[in-house]
Amino acid sequence: MFVYADNAATTAMSKTAVDAMLPAMHELYGNPSSLHRKGRDANLALIRARETVAQCLNAEPREIYFTGCGTESDNWAITEAARLGAERGKRHIISDPIEHHAVLHTLKKLEKQGFQVTYLPVYEDGVVRLEDLEKALREDTCLVTIMFSNNEIGTVQPIREIGALCRERGILFHTDAVQAVGHIPVDVEADNIDMLSLSGHKFHAPKGVGALYCKKSIRLRNFIEGGAQERDKRGGTEAIPAILAMAAALEESCAHLEENRVKVCAMRDKLIAGLSRIPNSRCNGSPDHRAPGIVSFCFEGIEGESLLLRLDLAGICASSGSACTSGSLDPSHVLLALGMPHEIAHGSLRLSLCEYNTMAEVDYILEQVPQVVRELRQMSPVWSRMLETMPDPYR
Ligand SMILES: *Cc1c(COP(=O)(O)O)cnc(C)c1O
User: Fold this and answer.
1) How many Å lie between the centroid of ligand 1 and the Cα of residue 39?
2) pLDDT of 322
3) What does pTM read for this prediction?
4) pLDDT exceeds 70 at position 320
5) How far apart (Å, rounded) are the C-alpha atoms in residues 272 and 287?
6) ∠ at Cα 331 (325, 332), nearest 5°?
7) Which of 139, 261, 323, 387 has the fewest beta carbons closer than 10 A?
8) If you compute the radius of gyration of the chain from its CA atoms, what whole number of angstroms results?
């Protein structure tokens, strides 16, 4: 059996996205800035795509900027919010330690430029507390950036409440919603969001296209200098085929949000229940505030990398945490921020599902993982050392 369970890293393109993309590649090759008919056709399609994306987020079309990826959207939003803050002498930012590197590395850069960043604790469950945010807010706070839903452990933050608190104090609120958009309801008005990043390839659109929502009252400036595209705010000829595919994929995801959520949650819950039966295992992240598709576990006494390779041989594509850090031997910054000891964080496994997965696949995963974990433990010196201090759970 083959199972793709790495949807938090990226998703397969949907038929809808491919169907929207192909004609755009064949026919709509005009530059949307050109005045002739080919240009006008492309521009019209671009206008429609922007309307679709705006509608899915409950935003206005002029508040949507197409970008090259989720990373660019994060970089742009945070850099601009910081610049606007600095203009008013405000150089304090609030975030948390389990953000994606697109956010964390941008914040590091700003710290080098003299900004101060407070990282709110996320506790063992991976959820920020409003009391902590309230205490961290200062006179000179210019930005709060907290992700909607975490890509490694799937925790969903209290975005609406965070947004309300920021709005009350007149502080900009940005959220990296790359793992949320297309998966759970996102409404920039109701959720009190000023700036939001999204990325197409996390909801069945192609890679290399994203968007930034920026509230119209914010005086956004360019991150990428160039032509007058994107209302003069983001130079570069628009990637029409990718943008049209993203709009189509988002529209489809939003139309089936609840139905997909129910399906994916049922698979997720079965996975969690099954994997919890493995001795000396723990499920990472809050059980209650959790995105539909993401399951994260640590298994004591084994290496996550060996587990992944063995699962790959069994036809299961999974991840040890974030795709961006795999390849490095450091344990995930997210698991460490939850207070997990290094040696346990090393034995991590992330399975991320989408509506294309099936219960039969979940059953197959639940057949394979306990077996592979047991075999790896039999060869593990760490596990045999553990057995000196506890009864063997496999006996
Ligand atoms: C994937 C991801 C990103 C980066 O998006 P790209 O389009 O790959 O640049 C940012 N934040 C989160 C939470 C992600 O999961």
Assistant:
1) 31
2) 54
3) 0.97
4) yes
5) 10
6) 60
7) 139
8) 22
